[in-house]
Amino acid sequence: MVRHGAAPKPVPLPDNPAAELLAWYDRHRRRLPWRAEPGVLPNPYAVWLSEIMLQQTTVAAVQKYFSAFMTRWPTIADLADAAVDEVMKEWAGLGYYARARNLHACAKAVASKRGGRFPQTEDALLALPGIGPYTAAAIAAIAFGQRAVVIDGNVERVVARLAGIDTPLAQAKPAIRAFAEELTPRRQAGDFAQAMMDLGATVCTPQRPACALCPLREHCRAFALGQQERFPVKGIKPERPLRIGNIFVLRTAEKVLVRTRAPRGLLGGMTEFPSSKWRNAGASQAKESDFSVAAHWRRLPGRVEHVFTHFALRLTVYTAETPSAVAPAGMRFVAIADLRREGLPSLMLKVAAHAGLLEAPRQTRRGAFK
User: Fold this and answer.
1) Within 13 Å, how many C-alpha atoms sit on residue 18's CB side?
2) Mean pLDDT of the chain, nearest integer
3) 6, 67, 73, 139: least surrounded by Cβ within 10 Å?
4) Which fold has domain 18-230?
């Protein structure tokens, strides 16, 4: 068992409710494309792929991406043989693009060094690219039946309410882990982990939890207090800093100028429209002269806004037309009709829509289109 720092002594439970939760899961489990049916051995490749995709992303958003990956690369050997650029394009729109680069690196490591088989223990899984403590525990439990403590956002909420942990979430994680350790059974740890996730996603929801349907309500401290929505206790979130910049959409009748970002860092390896550096708000505003291509640039009304994990971004969009499709060094012209196949990240889809190249994307939790 992998331990992550010192944890307080678990809160003793008069009766471990795992059996009640597992019985509920047998009746109410969600049917998900990566989840094995009862009595069927899980596919470790599918478990791993889904867990990487689900990091900081909703089940609804992941399902079509998972199906597309499994159709195109049905085994880890297939994924390992794929070009990383193709993997990045298939991932486009799912966000947090370092996951895609690590996904490909992990596939290559498993295929070349482990004969295409995932290790079964948390320690060995942690040695693979892109697999952290949560993902290692989830794969070990769900794919291989190891007793591992699996804690995602849904599980944190369920445990915080069950135990009535009256500490802001950022500081409560050791207590949550200790309580979850006490709850986790030695057998059916994978089913238990998925049951806790399903309970948090469908019953013990952030707002207005359906406590009347909860198999654990008799064990729940928050329910006994009548204060379910107070838990987990939220700390004060620091305000995201705002960055600003200009972005340039240069087009011919049928093509538009793009470039590929550096392979490392934010949106690494993704296709983008050229832009100025993103400055902290309050710094001197970029100008169209910051772009090396001389053209009759027109500033579009409004701005494109996007929210990343650590900062918010506001871009002013400039457009221009050129009769020549000769691209500057490090850039290229692509057909406007093929833009979606370029694998544009969500931010660039918003820019393309703002410039009238594509239909506006639906709003996502990672950013707003204005």
Assistant:
1) 18
2) 90
3) 6
4) Endonuclease III; domain 1 (1.10.340)
**Distance, CA of 115 to CA of 199 (rounded, Å):** 36
User: Once rounded to an integer, what is the mean pLDDT over residues 309-327?
Assistant: 93
Long-range pairs, 259-265, Cβ under 8 A, ≥24: 259/330, 259/331, 259/332, 263/101
Token pair for 309 = 């994990």
SS3 state at 258: strand
CB contact at 8 A, 194 and 151: no
Query: 0.85 cut: is pTM over it?
Result: no
Phi then psi dihedrals of residue 226, to 5 deg: 70, 30
* Catalytic pick among 37, 51, 90, 342: 51
Q: Dihedral sign, CA of 229, 230, 234, 239?
A: positive
Q: What CA–CA distance (Å, rounded) separates 240 from 347?
A: 17
Query: Could you give the CA distance from residue 216 to residue 20 in angstroms, rounded to a whole number?
Result: 7
Residues 278 and 244: beta-carbon distance below 8 Å: yes
> Could you give the CA distance from residue 240 to residue 248 in angstroms, rounded to a whole number?
25
CATH fold of the domain at 242-354: Nucleoside Triphosphate Pyrophosphohydrolase (3.90.79)
Residue 353 is encoded by which pair of tokens? 């829509």
Domain with CATH 1.10.340.30 in the chain: 18-230
57-61 long-range CB contacts below 8 Å, 24 or more apart?
Answer: 57/94, 57/95, 57/96, 58/365, 59/30, 59/32, 59/201, 61/94, 61/364
- In the residue annotation, 342 being an active-site residue is answered as no
3-state DSSP assignment of residue 305 = strand
Query: To the nearest whole percent, how much of the chain has pLDDT over 90?
Result: 78
Question: Of 311, 309, 319, 308, nearest to 352 (Cα)?
Answer: 319
300 pLDDT band, cuts 50/70/90, is: very high
Q: Read off the pLDDT of residues 48-96 as tens digits, 9 standing for 90 and up.
A: 999 999 998 999 999 999 999 999 999 999 999 999 999 999 998 898 8
Helix, strand, coil % (nearest 5) of the chain? 40, 10, 45
Domain span(s) for CATH 3.90.79.10 in the chain: 242-354
